[in-house]
Amino acid sequence: SFDIGPNKYSRDPHTEFALNKHHDIAAVLKAVSTFPYRGGSTNTGKAMTYVREKIFIPARGARGNVPRVMVLITDGKSSDSFKDPANKLRDTEVEIFAVGVKDAVRSELEAIANAPADNHVFEVEDFDSFQRISKELTTSICLRIEQELHNIKKR
């Protein structure tokens, strides 16, 4: 069911919208529901470098007084090196949560996500199973945002 061709295959990260593009949940949900499928390799390291260099920057809506959270969703083993990009992203105060779908490798998810893994790493059988973890994932993200907001206010 996928449209295959030389110009329809992606190994590179792509921004669907910047952090400052939408200003309410309805607009975000509408935008997310129209994301096209972008096939390609699982270049997790390249994706995290892209997020650090192109997404969490002031020109794209990142703000110093707002916690930075990334949820990595992957369905396979990374095709490239991911440990150094994950460390660099965490060093820029981005809190990383990792969700593995089906064939994702638990040890990779744990190496990518912030510690503790119990609060930052989730696994589902398939994309339709996200509902099963959505409340726990949302709770973990919100708790970390509250803690980080407290740290930001102290600074």
TrEMBL record:
A Pfam family hit: VWA
Residue ranges constituting the VWFA domain according to the UniProt record: 1-137
SUPFAM superfamilies listed in its UniProt record: vWA-like
SMART domains: VWA (SM00327)
Protein name stated in the entry: VWFA domain-containing protein
